[in-house]
Amino acid sequence: xxxxxxxxxxxxxxxxxxxxxxxxxxxxxxxxxxxxxxxxxxxxxxxxxxxxxxxxxxxxxxxxxx
Amino acid sequence: xxxxxxxxxxxxxxxxxxxxxxxxxxxxxxxxxxxxxxxxxxxxxxxxxxxxxxxxxxxxxxxxxxxxxxxxxxxxxxxxxxxxxxxxxxxxxxxxxxxxxxxxxxxxxxxxxxxxxxxxxxxxxxxxxxxxxxxxxxxxxxx
Lengths: 66, 143
Description:
The complex is a heterodimer. By secondary structure, chain A is of the alpha/beta class. Chain A is built from two helices and three strands; from the N terminus they run βαβαβ. Chain A has a three-stranded parallel beta sheet, sandwiched between helices. In chain A, strand 1, helix 1 and strand 2 form a beta-alpha-beta unit. Chain B has a single domain (about 30-140), classed as Arc Repressor Mutant, subunit A. By secondary structure, chain B is mainly α. Chain B is about 65% helix and about 10% strand. Chain B has six helices and two strands; from the N terminus they run H-H-H-H-H-H-E-E. The interface of A and B includes residues 4, 19, 23, 26 and 63 of A.
């Protein structure tokens, strides 16, 4: 059996974390392919409900970055 | 983080991934009641209202002109969240067929006293009704 590859839903702020992720891509930094990015206009837009619903629908973890 | 912190982003993704790998896969099917109750709680009117009024209450005071420290309001919010969550757990447990206080307590893990206390609240707000006595035990149903 292969190693456990988690599914992590990442809510990234358009102005900081998302831009940081973009830069990481442009700079060709290596990072795990476990995250599924959802771009939000502000991390304040993330409703706690999103976290619960992500877990209900099969995510192993949730990351909110701003 | 700032938009220039690509390395920091990479580090955070690595740390979070490692932590999730250590915790293992999350099986949502193992916590059907808890997740549904959490969802109902976060969606409830009382929690949404309270969260929406937080800045107003801490900056300008409540409708009686009393001022609130952020910590004190947060304590109240924690209590409300806990209470609403437990009420929703009970509501869901009754829907799943745990109709007596003892059965509800076993299904939710809440103490008997707490269950009967919260049941009164659920009855008052017309979410749960007293169905009658069954085998000398009071039984409840959802509305």
